[in-house]
């Protein structure tokens, strides 16, 4: 049982429920950000980020910077883009548009491939686009939190390496890192960025990313300096390398208490094979998706291979809005999220199934949520005379 | 007595010791960043930031963004500077150079006034510079953490309004907000930025700033869009205004647990008149500075009016380095910081006296630190045969 005060179970696609130990590790007494205690904690955390990404290449570089997941887009855009360079965005929802807006802020000339809602760009479409002009980078959301659509980042990267090998592959893994399979080195990815608060299960406030040697070299060989100061890879790189070697270093003060939480969370995650973690998320996701289908609901993600394993976005029955169903869920102790994709926000709800709610066998979060969903839907239909 | 595990007292110029209640408030159970509970907490926090800055002008705008204090420089630079505009930096230590580097990253043409170490630019020098060319903004560190030198931000702002009224006055208050007097409206400041981890006493990881209507209007009337995405005032403004009106809104996920800690800390701070808080920090600072003088040590800050009230940077006796003295302090349960100003880093140490170590009458942190300093110095001198 949790030592936390009684509360409804947070099952939105992030932030997610906290493990007690992760939450309590933030109560560590104050430390100097350059003292030996914290330097060790931060150094070990960076090394565990490598394991999280299944990366063993010492020339790849993990980053942990105080900020929201969004800051990762600024890191990609301000370090990898020079004014006027081309970026190709594979749109699968709300976060594709935002990632594109961030790239444009730093001078990118953005092309988006935008399929119908619930679909993802096909490999043929991506190949066609890559052959039309040289792209400095490709940007895709692994799981788009607004739709639950999964991009096939492995196949896209293979395609890029075949068709346009110099193009950098950057992945927004905010809603996937820690629950979807990612083999950073083996798949030859260039940047995968995430936040601390989703499948990693730490509190929000840390921007976490993994950078390939190719990406780091691209930053080092820029013709112009990086176009951000706080998000500059060159400002952080020596500092994070020092921390990982247990040497104090300073660029900006790390979020010490959040790093403690991340250390605990990553210690738990990396104590088991990552493959096991991905498998259990996939199993539970299959169960959720079967239950949703049994309730007669359709997912936004149109095909099994497009469907994320850490969340499920589902259309409500005709005539029902999120405001008809979410209060009934809350009454039963469960919090889902309303729609986020602007065009259809009032037509669907989102169920996040990541982290401790999946991996802790003592919790019954998913069973409770599915039972609550069934009841809340029936209640809402009855109230509306449907 | 603190409920925290036994530990040496952290008396560096930030991060500082935690109040138990502040530390424990991070253990709040997981909440949706757009749910009513967190929306209320965040909205109240923003309103308390106004009080922290003694601001009652509803058109002034508080910002609380996940990130280090350093991110505040990016907010100033990317929102207020357009390429090629002039910025005047009043250098009082390490952070003047860094603030200048950030401004340059976003296209500013920077002029620095650099006095001798321990001094601050005189009003006459600032007036002369302001008359030489039009400056879009002036940038100064209120207390430079590397030297303990205090800029007279009130007098500088009066001067700017008289000589160059269109110039925006921006202040790095990372080491001053919460311990030095700041009257945001009355002094007609434009931006004061800070971090959560110094005199405010919350954990590191939040960039906090206050913006005047003049500064906000400057951003809104830019010829080019802000040159950062994550640090864009235009991206955050509607979201923070909504939160303060208790309406959910989204740009990037706030650091929910840190916001809880900040809420608790600001509730404590604003429950008493700010003048009382400034007075007690000044009293304790006077006591520290008298004790340091009695030990025969000289401060970096050359004159009483240049000396900050939240920290003291002191030269060690000839022949002693920080590594000779800091271990002796640690042995006595006290952590001070080594020097940070590159040219003289091995010649001095820094003592932070801010927050709960000053305001909690049950703690004897300053007395203990002064006693430990006396003993550690004597021990180090003896070991060196001085």
From TrEMBL, chains A, B:
GO terms for molecular function: alanine-glyoxylate transaminase activity; L-serine-pyruvate transaminase activity. Pfam families: Aminotran_5 (PF00266). Keywords: Aminotransferase, Pyridoxal phosphate, Transferase. Substrate binds at residue 350. GO terms for cellular component: peroxisome. Residues 21-341 form the Aminotransferase class V domain. The modification N6-(pyridoxal phosphate)lysine is found at residue 198. The keyword Transferase applies. Its cofactor is pyridoxal 5'-phosphate. Its EC number is 2.6.1.44. GO terms for biological process: glycine biosynthetic process, by transamination of glyoxylate. Belongs to the class-V pyridoxal-phosphate-dependent aminotransferase family. This is alanine--glyoxylate transaminase. The lineage of its organism: Eukaryota, Fungi, Dikarya, Ascomycota, Pezizomycotina.
């Amino acid at each position: 049982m949790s030592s936390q005060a009684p509360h409804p179970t947070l099952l939105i696609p992030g932030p997610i429920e906290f493990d007690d130990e992760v939450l309590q590790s933030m109560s560590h007494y104050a430390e100097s950000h350059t003292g030996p205690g914290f330097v060790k904690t931060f150094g070990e955390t960076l090394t565990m980020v490598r394991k999280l990404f299944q990366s063993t290449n010492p020339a790849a570089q993990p980053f942990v910077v105080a900020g929201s997941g969004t800051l990762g887009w600024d890191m990609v855009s301000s370090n990898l883009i020079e004014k006027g360079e081309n970026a190709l965005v594979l749109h699968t929802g709300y976060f594709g548009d935002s990632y594109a807006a961030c790239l444009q802020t730093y001078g990118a000339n953005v092309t988006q491939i935008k399929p119908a809602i619930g679909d993802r760009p096909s490999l043929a479409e991506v190949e066609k686009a890559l052959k039309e002009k040289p792209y400095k980078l490709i940007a895709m959301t692994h799981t788009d939190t607004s739709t639950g659509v999964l991009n096939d980042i492995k196949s896209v990267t293979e395609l890029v390496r075949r068709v346009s090998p110099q193009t950098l592959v950057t992945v927004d893994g905010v809603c996937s890192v820690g629950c979807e399979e990612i083999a950073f080195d083996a798949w030859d990815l260039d940047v995968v960025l995430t936040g601390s608060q989703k499948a990693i299960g730490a509190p929000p406030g840390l921007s976490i990313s993994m950078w390939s040697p190719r990406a780091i070299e691209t930053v080092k060989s820029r013709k112009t300096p990086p176009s951000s100061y706080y998000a500059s890879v060159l400002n952080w790189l020596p500092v994070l390398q020092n921390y990982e070697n247990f040497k104090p270093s300073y660029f900006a003060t790390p979020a010490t208490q959040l790093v403690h939480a991340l250390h605990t969370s990553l210690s738990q995650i990396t104590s088991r094979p990552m493959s096991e973690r991905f498998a259990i998320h996939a199993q539970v996701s299959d169960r959720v998706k079967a239950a949703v289908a049994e309730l007669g609901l359709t997912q936004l993600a149109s095909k099994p291979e497009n469907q994320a394993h850490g969340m499920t976005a589902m259309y409500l029955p005709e005539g029902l809005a999120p405001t008809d169903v979410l209060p009934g869920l809350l009454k039963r102790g469960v919090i889902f999220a309303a729609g986020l994709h602007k065009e259809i926000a009032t037509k669907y709800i989102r169920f996040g199934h990541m982290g401790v709610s999946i991996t802790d066998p003592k919790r019954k979060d998913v069973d409770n949520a599915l039972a609550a969903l069934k009841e809340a839907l029936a209640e809402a239909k009855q109230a509306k005379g449907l």
